[in-house]
Design brief:
single chain; alpha+beta; Bifunctional nuclease domain; 7-stranded mixed sheet; 7 helices; globular
Length: 162
Amino acid sequence: MDIEVRIRGLMMDPATNMPIVVLKDPASDAVMPIWVGIFEANAIAIELEKMTAPRPMTHDLTRNLIHHLNAELERVVITEIREDTFFAVLWLRQGAEPMVVDARPSDAIALALRFDCPIYVAQQVLQSAKLGSAGAGEGQTGEQLRNYLEGLNDEDLGRYKM
């Protein structure tokens, strides 16, 4: 079963200085951080802040290609986590033909924002997302990091914006 999530925030991991996309299940207190690259975080931040670049960025180009091929992005799903790496798929539709395309979660999220389509996480991924080895700082356990992320308020997220 897939659970629809919302982007709770985009911040910098204070321990590693790596960008984190924080996803939240609105029906519970579950949060799931995904560490992403700086360029992908920038693409997500640009869309979250409704900024426009003078020329199309990579995710804008991808959106334009999908539109010009008369297709639509219906949803993105973060499907699994293996060895601290998240995997995602894009659910596209071209006419009556559904298509599933492999994608990095950061790219899938950036495209979901551009298409205003829902983001889902497989239930088992949300329940088993490993925080400790994926981004906890020295001496910081996964549980401590989870508590830290769950306790963030809007002011905290603003402090770490990209």
